[in-house]
Amino acid sequence: MDPDHFQSAKLKIRRAYHHITEIDQILKQFFLDRTFHSVSCKKVGDKYMLHVETGGDPLPENVPLILGDAVHNIRTAFDHVVVAFTKGKGDLALPVAKTAVDLTQSGKIFTKIKKDFPTFADYILNNLEPFKGGQLFLWEITQLDNLDKHNLLIPTLSFSRIDDIEATAEGGNVMKGLQIRMRRGMSMSPIALGVPITVTSQGKAFGTLLFGNDVLPDIMIVPTLTNCVHRCFEALNALELFCYGKVSKPDTLE
């Protein structure tokens, strides 16, 4: 194995980072260009509160494609390194399993690596943690990559808040800069008055994308994958140091 395989792996991680950044930019522009909500007055008991209804256009169709590319690049980055390291022994890819016990006791790929490259196998187990809940999310990334082979990874759009709402209460009291926070699709009114309220400005909505599957249910996509690629890039540098005693081209992800 030569250091070039680490460079190709790092290129994969950098590309994944680019994809995640692109998704974040698309999401921000998406909220700037469209109105997805309607704020109105609703009477609850003897109080008048602000109520939100959400809806609107679906996400751009390229978002699931970009998400799938990001996931695939993270997964294959580690395949590049493991395949190169075990060359001549069947071109073994990165072993993953749901638990560490499954990995060591019934994982055929891990068992073969352990037989031929015991120190490398121990490094994979203890430092890469390719099982559910591991620090690099490699088991979760693998599951998402497998899902994407058969179906698009469709994110869930979640509203987090609406800022700068303006309203006037009966009697002339003008309220500006109101904010409504959203939690699990429910709006939390910042005011509760004894008189009706007229909304004069709908404000601006903000939101995030969640994984819409059982692998990472209701987990935010952009911050989670951003954290993942930073950790993976650092892990590749550490693995290269482990293999060669140095990092051939010391650099950073960004």
Unreliable spans are none
> What is the global morphology?
elongated
Percent in helix: 40-55%
Number of helices: 7
Radius of gyration: 24 Å
Strand-residue fraction? 15-25%
Describe this structure in words.
- It contains 7 helices and 8 strands, in the order αββαααααββββββα.
- The protein is α+β, with helices and mostly antiparallel strands and 254 residues long.
- Strands 3, 4, 5, 7 and 8 form a 5-stranded antiparallel β-sheet that branches. Strands 1-2-6 form a 3-stranded antiparallel β-sheet, with no helix packed on it.
- A hairpin with a 2-residue loop joins strand 1 and strand 2.
- Helix 1 runs antiparallel to helix 2 and helix 2 crosses helix 6.
- The longest helix has 30 residues.
Which key features would you list for this structure?
254 residues; elongated; alpha+beta; five-stranded antiparallel beta sheet; 7 helices; three-stranded antiparallel beta sheet
